[in-house]
Structure prediction request, 709 residues.
Amino acid sequence: MENRFNQVEAAAFVAARPDCSPVLALRVYTSRLLGREPELVLHGGGNTSVKERTPNILGEEQELLYIKGSGWDLASIEAAGFPGLDLAWLRRLRGLPELSDEEMVNQFRTHLLDAAAPNPSIETLVHAFLPHRFIDHTHADAVVTLTHLPTPEKHLRAALGEGIAILPFIMPGFPLARAMVELYEDDPQVEAVILLQHGIFTFADEAEIAYSRMIDYVTRAEKYLAGQRTPGNRSQLLPSEATNSASEASGAEAITTAVVLPLLRGALSCVDSAGVRRYFSLDLRDDSVLLAALARPDAAQLFGGGVLTPDHVIRTKNYPLLLNLEPGFDQEAVGVVIREAVEAYGNRYRQYFIRQSQAAGAEKIMLDPSPRVILIPGLGLVGAGFSPKEAAIAADIAVQTVRAKLQGVELGPFLDLGEEHIFAMEYWSLEQAKLGQGKPALLAGRVALVTGGGGAMAVGIAAKLLEAGARVFLSDRDQPRLEAVAARLAARFGAANLGTVVMDVTDQASVAAGLGQIVQTAGGLDILVPNAGIAHVARLEELSGADFARVMAVNCHGVFTVIKAAIPIFRRQGYGGQVVINSSKNVFDPGPAFGAYSASKAAAHQLGKIAALELAELGVAVNMINADAVFAADGIDSGLWEVVGPDRMRARKLDPAGLREYYRNRNLLKAEVSAEQVGNAVLFFAAGLTPTTGATLPVDGGIPAAFPR
Ligand SMILES: [Zn+2]
Prediction:
């Protein structure tokens, strides 16, 4: 592992932060160097600290500990991510006979320098009790891998030398902090402490030395692991034949992401104790190294074990689910295997929970029993979570875990950390206390597709779906328009839950590819909003067949293609879904010179009713929104009105402002309809708040001639 410390860069980093003490700025600098290495820390893992004497508000010298706060990632940490604590007070806590986790956190919060600071790391007392100015702690893969082997001490000594002390696994908290400092005081010459099945601490009075020791010891562990491989083993580790057999397996008709991911998503989804369905996001990783690793004959034994470091259990649960899908399986067989495997995983999890909560003698609330990491030889590794972010974190950690376990394969079996330790971490009282406090967002975990994504309507609809927590994909055949809308939405809601798909709704192959892309990215689809629409102004006498066909292709055939392509996804997920068609006030109240538009919209509307009849057996509701003229939203013009507006203005002898006024005045409530109001109506149906299907909801300010009937 490369030592990235650079004197010039460090000095510039400190100089660029004049508001921050140089010592703390240097702490931020080397923390980020550690955070850059996925082999050291991932997603909030690891922590660092620095001690400093500064005058307090009364001008008295005070000794402070700055330690990484929870919620911060070492890769991107700032000085604000290091809450300062009264170090003298923390050191006095060492004299207590015991200290519960709750009281420990209370002591942290009541001895902060800044009352609004984030919670200091759970490992704060380790940093406080050790005397060194700079302390670095990571969950380095290579070191942790050695600690999971039989006879870890032997390997650690051989790999790292005599400058280390070794501590058996102890849960983070007061007892660990005391054990660490006692170990250090027994031998003050040690440069690093290895915590079995957890990680490594290095320390020094200089930032560079603490950091360099970390890199040095981790490099020694990496070299030791590499040195244990006999020549030729590298290729044996990742056999090229395995890649071939993997691709052969994935060539089987039913074992494709298009089939497997929605089936998996359906099997994972569960109804929580409050009766609310929870939806999973999936994140597939399928690079060739991973596929080759999963194709190894010993994959189950090698990768089926527990986490590398107990931190990970919160993100990945202890065990992955291994799904062996035989190449000859048809779709039904794949579905059965997946459902049974997920169910069996859940049953094992419940047994583990009952066993451990009884052993702990504490009342705990069971977390959902679904796996967070699914290994599918031939297909890849799937991270699962209640949001795209959670799924990505689970996948990142799992990929790193597969790599780490591969490195240790020559040295013996990977030994799990005992399940009582895993349980203690997974059901830590402070984590339990947070349960049930935050109600999930209305559409949390759900995946939506809005077609016609380059227009004003899509802005309003997507805004409301994003606001409600859905992951939204916008599709359009016009990529620049699509990107303009996506950029606007990303500026308001962030990009994490937003995706774009270039797709032509009039072309079944293009639609199939587009929905395939969504399944590949998110795992499935829950909400379909056929929204693409075009218009053409011409009386029948002047309307060309080509123009009529063009409007019909988008407004009617384009609704058919997306519904048809979504049905297999809904069927595989098996828990229903929502289709909300953006129809038109014209369906009930057509206008002259608007034949192609009105007829195509009426046909699509009828198609929606047929879909409502046919898809009810899948639990899929299909409803229609009849909106009147929406001109623009959030600076994006309606593509439809750009085309229609000038003709309509000419027909009514009005300027653009006059046209908007005209449409407002023609409805009962004198309302100008906005895209966000249409979005509200879509949201109502998308959330499935009422058992309604085949219905039409007007969003038009009230036009008697367009009342649904
Ligand atoms: Zn740790």
User: Anything to note?
Assistant: Residues 232-251 have pLDDT under 50 and may be disordered. The pocket of zinc ion is lined by residues 123, 137, 139, 198-199, 311 (CB under 6 Å). Residues 23 and 52 are 8 Å apart (CA to CA).
